[in-house]
Design brief:
single chain, alpha/beta, 8 helices, 30% helix, 22% strand
């Protein structure tokens, strides 16, 4: 049984981030970019590091290959005081590596490969999160949560243990699922956090409130639609809240949603209201975008609190 406050379950990858790519070749095979960095990533990795920085006892359940990429991720997690004792390592599958092209405004496009579709089975490791306060499934519709029976097993089990259940979403890449395909799992989820593109894809709606209504109709308890530079929209069966984004100079949006979710969960675990948790989460996401890499800019809960105070004073 874990002693963690929160357990993150999902993918762990290496991001090769190319900033300022120039599509005009300088030779037959050569191109230039402003910079290229290697960063650890994946929803579970980004979220767990952010959570640990915010002061929560944090565990990660993920799969890593027995390779150099896996060593790099494990080392970074340990450096940030994330409990890595539940990481599954094997020679069966390599650690996924993603190439990401980041534009000057912080927007990005990514290239995945077959390594991203390999699943491990988190439903076999229920002891990892027994005793925690919350679990984050990151992300629905991507491995390991791209099989309805896996999603149902983990969501139902965590819910039955009385844990807060958070679920991020991603657009499907290898396995094509819809909300209808996982309808029996959604009532076990307390908070689901699609971004605007994902909300549009899964609901067929363009308005954030209507997106939220569709998710709520499936039995999800509360919905947060992340709107990027426009902020975020929260709705449950009692209230709705819209928060505009902070005015910042974004360098890279990679991992902003994962930092947002970690911030939201951390404040709820500490007893904050939905409104307080949203404000804190909004700040975590904003801070993340001020540097290249998902785990670079966010440093501590005190940093986030100071950021919020500073922005209030500037109004």
């Amino acid at each position: 049984m874990t002693t963690a406050d929160i357990v993150f379950i999902g993918t762990a990858i290496i991001d090769s981030i190319i900033k300022g790519f120039d599509s005009e070749p300088i030779s037959v095979t050569g191109y230039r970019a402003d910079g290229c960095t290697l960063n650890i990533g994946g929803e579970a990795v980004n979220g767990s590091i952010a959570s640990a920085k915010l002061g929560l006892k944090t565990t990660i359940l993920c799969h890593l290959g027995n390779d150099h990429a896996g060593d790099l991720i494990a080392s970074a997690l340990e450096k940030h005081n994330v409990d890595t004792g539940s990481i599954i390592r094997s020679d069966e599958h390599p650690t996924p590596v993603t190439t990401m092209f980041v534009a000057d405004d912080g927007s990005r496009k990514s290239i995945t490969n077959k390594a991203h579709r390999y699943n491990f089975h988190p439903e076999k490791y229920t002891d990892v999160y027994a005793g925690a306060k919350a679990v984050v499934l990151g992300s629905l519709f991507r491995a390991p949560f791209d099989e309805p029976k896996v999603i149902r097993a983990v969501a139902e089990d965590t819910h039955s243990k009385g844990l807060l259940v958070f679920a991020d979403t991603k657009l499907p890449n290898f396995a094509k699922l819809s909300l209808g395909d996982i309808a029996d799992s959604l009532p076990f989820i307390d908070y689901i956090t699609p971004n605007e593109d994902e909300g549009r894809y899964f609901t067929g709606e363009d308005d954030p409130e209507k997106m939220a209504d569709v998710f709520l109709s499936y039995g999800v308890h509360a919905v947060i639609v992340k709107l990027g530079a426009k902020g975020c929209y929260f709705k449950n069966n009692k209230e709705s809240i819209y928060l505009p984004a902070y005015d910042i100079d974004a360098a890279d949006a990679t991992g902003a949603g994962d930092n947002f979710l970690a911030g939201f969960a951390s404040e709820l675990i500490r007893g904050g209201s939905a409104a307080e948790a949203l404000e804190f989460a909004n700040a975590c996401g904003a801070i993340c975008t001020t540097a290249v890499g998902a785990g670079t800019a966010l440093q501590s809960r005190e940093q986030v609190t100071e950021f919020i105070i500073e922005k209030r004073e500037c109004k």
